[in-house]
Amino acid sequence: MLSSPIVLGSDPKVNPRLAAAIANARKEKAGFPKSSIESAIARGQGVSGNGSPLENVTLEALLPQAVAFVIDCQTDNKTRCLQELRLLVKSHGGTVTSTAYLFEKRGRLVFEKAEKAVDDILEVIVEADVHDMETDESGNVLVFTHPSDTVMTGAKISERTGIRMHSSNIIYHPIEDTRVPIDTKASVEALTAFITDIQQESAVQGIYFNAAQGKVGDQEWVGLQNSIDGSGNSL
Q: Which residues pair with 70 in a beta bridge?
């Protein structure tokens, strides 16, 4: 929901993406509290629920199995936020250290499943000078571009193809040859436990890591993917 007010404003009456995000939140989680929606809109505008300005904070960490994490936050108390995250990392056997060099920043655009075939819109996407494109299990089209081109590219593709953009954000994408294979169920459980604890921190807006499926079974791997995808973050 955060990217919607950032791009088009905080009034759902004139921001269709924000209106859709609010509707989806209520649909996916019955009784989604109004206070949580208002807080998310405020964060999208760079302020906390009480109107205090928010700072962007990034924590880099290395967890057991040498899995690298980058955690993006928005907070009105940088010192407290970092202290709490460092304690969580330590409690899970990790170390706070530089890991961002194992990732590259990308703009990620998610377009809703289109009636047109992917081939029909590929030409427009290529003209938009994107890094990569793929489709997810739901048929949504994911487009990756340079961070500074994210908003412009999203608008161009939507205008040229008529496909509705579901979301846009800046992510940390793991460099392929730095990915760490996960081979055991125990490793999956440890990573899932860490991700779950991190997600409890209200300041956390994005969680990125460089794990890859090794010898671990498909069921366990999908479970790990779901633990991070469910919060709108990225592998």
A: 60, 208
Dihedral sign for Cα atoms in the order 46, 52, 57, 59: negative
The span from the CA of 91 to the CA of 193, in Å, is 11
Residue 57: enclosing H or E segment and its boundaries? strand 55-63
Alpha helix (H) ranges present in 66-164? Answer: 78-91, 118-127, 150-161
**H or E stretch at 208:** strand 204-209
Q: Which residue bears the tokens 């302020």?
A: 47
pLDDT in tens, 84-115: 999 999 999 999 999 999 999 999 988 887 66
Whether the Cβ atoms of residue 103 and residue 175 lie closer than 8 Å to each other: yes
> What are the tokens at 63?
């967890």
End-to-end, the C-alpha distance of the chain in Å comes to 19
pLDDT one-digit tens code per residue, 186-211: 999 999 999 999 999 988 989 999 99
Q: Which residues on neighbouring strands pair with residue 108, listed in sequence order?
A: 144, 169
